[in-house]
Every structure is written in C-alpha cells, then in structure tokens.
Amino acid sequence: MSTALKPIITWWEDYIDANDGQLKQRPVPNNLWDLGVVDADNNPDLTTHTFYIWNNKKPSSTSEYNNVPDMVNCRVTTKDGSFEDYMAGEMKSPLVIEQWVRINNVLSSDSSDSEIYIPIGSTFKNGVLTQKDIQITAMGSTDGTGVSTGTISGQMNDGKFKTESSKNNFAKIKAQVKVPPSADAEKNKFIVRVYYNV
C-alpha cells in the first residue's frame, strides 16, 4: 500500500440540523468561522464552537484511498487575516497579540466537568513578537492503543466520528473568543492555523 507525501487535512464542525434538531458534523462551510458581532467584555461561552481537524478522513469515493503521513507535534495558533492595515500571516492585530481566541483540546478520556481554555496568538518574549500556541492531540490518544501526544494519525479509516479506531485520525477542539473591555469597535479577520511535522 503506498503512502502519500503529505497529510490530507480537512476541518469539520458541529452544527444543529434545522430539519431534525440533531447535533451533527459537516465540513466547515467555506473554511469560515463567522462570529458575527461580538461585544467587548463578552461572555466567551456564547462564542464557543467545536471543530474537528481530520487527517486522511475517508472520502465518499474509496478509489485510490491510501495511508498518508501522520501529523506530528501538532499545534494550533491564530494569525492575522487581511484587513485594514494588517496582512495575512502576521501576528500584529489586537485579536492575535492580545490573545482573544482560546482553545480547549477535547480528548476521549476527559471526564472533568471543568474545561480549560488556553489563549493563543502572539506574545512578546524577550522583546520579540513570538507565536503562542497550544498542542493538540487526536481523540483516540488515551485509550492505550492510540496515537502519541501531539499526533493525528494518517492511517486509512472509515471516516466516522464514533468509530474508536477513527478517533486516532482527528483532533477535537473547542474554540471561543473573549474580547477585552478595552477593544475598539472594528472588523477583525483572523486565521486559526494548525502546524505539524511529518
């Protein structure tokens, strides 16, 4: 069985199906997390959204479906989008440098009622603007047969969210935004980006 040269990454999200009111998953529409209007000093729980970062999710067509490399040392951060005076990929906008976005990496074994959200973006370290990120790990990492910490498997799978072995192929994260009281009323565009090694 051949292996592709790089991981095949897709982002999915939780949503409520308007037809039957059930919680389901779908590809993130247009790769866009549209928060709409968020007030300064907001309740971050009202912005919480669940995402799944898949590696090699089985496509609907099974032709030429092969293993791909694992994503290793996976980390998530935010970068600037293109808006106003900011350029995509930089770390200078208030949203990024003040770490408005916070991430919780959900694992299968999590039984705690409290969820810990880690702020991500950028920070000054020894006078240098430096990326601040969070390590993420696949859902199936803690059952004794799963992937190691910081890894999302590239092995072939059935593409189903509830299959235990397929949980090695995706990380589940919850993201939320906390806007500080001092924030100006303005448009913000940002990128939530996953980094990894192979």
Which keywords apply here?
198 residues; mainly beta; 1 helix; 11 strands; globular
Strand tally? 11
3D shape: globular
Helical fraction equals under 10%
Mean pLDDT: 91
Strand order of the largest sheet: 2-1-3-10-5-6
Rg estimate, integer Å: 18 Å
What about the largest sheet? 6 strands, antiparallel
Low-pLDDT windows of residues: none
- Please state roughly what percent of the residues sit in beta strands, choosing from under 5%, 5-15%, 15-25%, 25-35%, 35-45% or over 45%: 25-35%
Write up what this structure looks like.
The structure is a single chain. This protein is an all-beta fold and 198 residues long. The chain is built from one helix and eleven strands; from the N terminus they run ββββαβββββββ. Strands 2-1-3-10-5-6 form a six-stranded antiparallel β-sheet, with no helix packed on it. The chain has a three-stranded antiparallel β-sheet with strand order 9-4-11, with no helix packed on it. The radius of gyration is 18 Å and the shape is globular. It starts with 8 loop residues before the first strand and ends with a strand.
